[in-house]
């Protein structure tokens, strides 16, 4: 190795080319400098964006709280607040559907929308005290139903039917489902008073998989890609953004160096989003599968931002779209971050170039 390096150093310009190509290969993921932050806030109020479906964003605006849809700009805002509702909010979107809740006579009712206020369909089960839908992939919707005892039970709905599958496993005192994609559901299950465990299901209570890692005091899973899961783990030394691959043992800590407080909220393919706290500021965050891949999305926000969180991530194949919100001058404002999807095969092309340069160096040596 030392001899090869010594020979290479005699090829100064060629080594520079190899190093340059190597650096490009190492960073052939999403380009950090190309992120663009767009303020979605409607003038005169506050807002939060909670989920993404391709280039569409969902959430809520204030005055009173109303379910909201955007298509990339503040001017594209559409209220989908159902007729007769007191308040409403969209919490997730996928496959052309949106889910969340609306309140009627003070009761929270899970609902599904198809892009307009008139399309609202209540998913609220008969006899339940309350219900909320948190995420959808367009086919399945997940959330929770509050039953007579006052406890929440993780719920799975399909289509527009209020009939739901109770995902709570035997022995649990309560549960909530936070994410769904491609037939997989995630959330948390509580055993005892506050013994929260990150949960993974495949459509039934009996399919429950306990994702709680060995270092955790409490944990919850908040999103799934269908193969990987993200969430939050509380330990004796802090809280970290977590990434799983279907088992408790697969848990990865995504917190970057210097952070002891992190959350992961959503995942799409190999992209994860959430927030981390560094130097007392909570910063919207983006990852590509490791702590080392962390990108501080807060740096693309206006001056005066004191808090930001990324809540959802999606892609239309052209761009990556991240939803979230930030506190600017004390006011919550919905934001969208976007970045071009890396060109297919970019890393392969660069590796090929590196091989060509290396071959030329050997021939000249």
Overview of the molecule:
The protein has about 375 residues and is mainly beta. It has one domain (about 30-340): Peptidase/esterase 'gauge' domain (Methylamine Dehydrogenase, Chain H). It contains three helices and 28 strands. The strands form seven sheets. The protein has a four-stranded antiparallel β-sheet with strand order 1-28-27-26, with no helix packed on it. The protein has a four-stranded antiparallel β-sheet with strand order 2-3-4-5, with no helix packed on it. Helix 2 runs antiparallel to helix 3 (about 345-365). The protein is globular, with a radius of gyration of 23 Å.
Task: Give a short overview.
With 365 residues, this protein is mainly beta.
Tally the structural domains.
1
**What form results from the Cα inertia axes?**
globular
Compute the number of strand runs: 28
Structure class: mainly beta
């Amino acid at each position: 190795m030392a001899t090869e390096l010594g020979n290479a150093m005699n090829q100064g310009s060629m080594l520079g080319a190899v190093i340059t190509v190597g650096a490009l290969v190492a960073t052939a993921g999403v380009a950090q400098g190309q992120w663009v932050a767009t303020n979605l806030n409607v003038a005169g109020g506050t807002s939060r964006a909670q989920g993404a479906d391709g280039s569409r964003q969902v959430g809520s605006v204030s005055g009173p709280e109303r379910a909201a849809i955007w298509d990339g700009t503040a001017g594209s805002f559409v209220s989908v607040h159902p007729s007769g509702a007191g308040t409403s909010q969209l919490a997730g979107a996928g496959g052309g559907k949106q889910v969340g809740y609306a309140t009627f006579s003070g009761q929270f009712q899970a609902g599904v929308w198809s892009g307009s206020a008139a399309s609202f369909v209540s998913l609220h089960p008969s006899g339940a005290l309350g219900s909320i839908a948190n995420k959808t992939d367009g086919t399945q919707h997940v959330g929770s139903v509050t039953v007579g005892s006052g406890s929440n039970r993780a719920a799975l709905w399909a289509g527009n039917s209020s009939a739901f599958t109770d995902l709570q496993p035997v022995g649990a005192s309560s549960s909530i489902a936070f994410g769904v994609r491609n037939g997989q559901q995630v959330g948390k299950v509580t055993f005892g008073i506050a013994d929260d465990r990150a949960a993974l299901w495949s459509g039934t209570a009996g399919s429950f998989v306990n994702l709680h890692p060995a270092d955790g005091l409490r944990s919850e899973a908040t999103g799934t890609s269908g193969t990987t899961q993200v969430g939050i783990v509380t330990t004796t030394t802090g809280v970290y953004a977590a990434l799983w691959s279907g088992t408790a043992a697969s848990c990865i800590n995504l917190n970057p160096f210097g952070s002891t407080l992190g959350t992961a909220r959503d995942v799409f393919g190999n992209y994860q989003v959430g927030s981390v706290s560094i130097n007392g500021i909570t910063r919207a965050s983006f990852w590509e599968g490791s702590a080392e891949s962390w990108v501080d999305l807060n740096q693309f926000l206006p001056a005066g931002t004191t808090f930001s969180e990324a809540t959802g991530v999606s892609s239309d194949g052209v761009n990556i779209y991240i939803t979230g919100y930030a506190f600017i001058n004390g006011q919550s404002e919905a934001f969208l971050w976007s970045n071009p999807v890396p060109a297919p095969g970019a890393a392969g092309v660069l590796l090929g170039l590196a091989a060509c340069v290396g071959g030329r160096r050997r021939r000249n040596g």
